[in-house]
Design brief:
The chain is mainly β and 209 residues long. The protein has 2 helices and 13 strands, in the order βββββββββββββαα. The strands form 3 sheets. An 8-stranded mixed β-sheet has the order 1-2-5-12-9-8-7-10, with no helix packed on it. Strands 3-4-13 form a 3-stranded antiparallel β-sheet, with no helix packed on it. A two-stranded antiparallel ribbon has the order 6-11. β7 and β8 form a beta hairpin. It is globular, with a radius of gyration of 16 Å. The mean pLDDT is 96.
Length: 209
């Protein structure tokens, strides 16, 4: 997936469709601002929270995989913080497309990619930072229905070293494996906005810009 070249495709359309919540959120949750960096020990008013799409996060990603080439720190998914073990559900009917464990520090840890088709469009959804148990008994091509439990939130020791949360990211292009670039460089940004549309198209208005 080459994000260094311009990519043209029509925007993702979801008009008239109803989607299932990926994680059932309480009435109150935090909306995080990581534009000044990431403090895992910061004060939080809820165990649930949202990390924003298309947010530049300087100093947050410092593992070796982020030190190769250009600085990558623009977040192309939505993070949904939740307690360990909380169920992660399919937002729409589809199939299991890829799954595996991205074990590097500050990577996704256990990850499941699903494939969906609606309104004559194909879209892929990456679910990262799951529990290792989430990968058990999965089969590529396995059908899923909206609301099916496809995994659970993983703990820090298995999810890449992050506070427990789900990284949810849409892709208009098929991932080559159980991975997608969750953060991109400034040069990749324009193409990434096309390939990785705003997850709020299916998650709903979890926050206001």
């Amino acid at each position: 997936m080459d994000l260094n070249q311009p990519i043209a495709m029509p925007p993702l359309v979801t008009t008239g469709l109803t989607f299932h919540p990926v994680i059932q959120l309480p009435d109150h949750y935090d909306v995080y601002d990581f534009t000044d960096g990431y403090d895992p020990d910061r004060m939080r008013s809820s165990t649930y929270g949202i990390g924003r799409y298309n947010e530049r996060r300087p100093t947050m990603y410092n593992a070796p995989q982020y030190a190769v080439g250009e600085v990558r720190n623009i977040h192309m998914g939505i993070d949904i913080a939740a307690p360990v073990g909380v169920a992660v559900r399919a937002f729409y009917k589809g199939t299991i497309y890829r799954f595996g464990d991205n074990r590097a520090h500050q990577d996704y840890g256990p990850t499941i990619v699903t494939k969906h088709n609606f309104l004559s469009q194909v879209v892929y959804a990456l679910h990262g930072h799951l529990s290792r148990e989430s990968l058990a008994n999965l089969v590529v091509g396995q059908p899923i229905e909206a609301g099916d439990i496809i995994g659970h939130i993983g703990e820090k020791s298995e999810n890449g070293g992050w506070n427990p949360h789900l990284h949810f990211q849409l892709s208009r292009l098929a991932p080559a494996t159980h991975d997608l670039p969750g953060v991109v460089s400034a040069r990749q940004h324009a193409a990434a906005l096309v390939v990785f549309p705003d997850p709020r198209l299916v998650l709903g208005n979890l926050y206001v810009d």
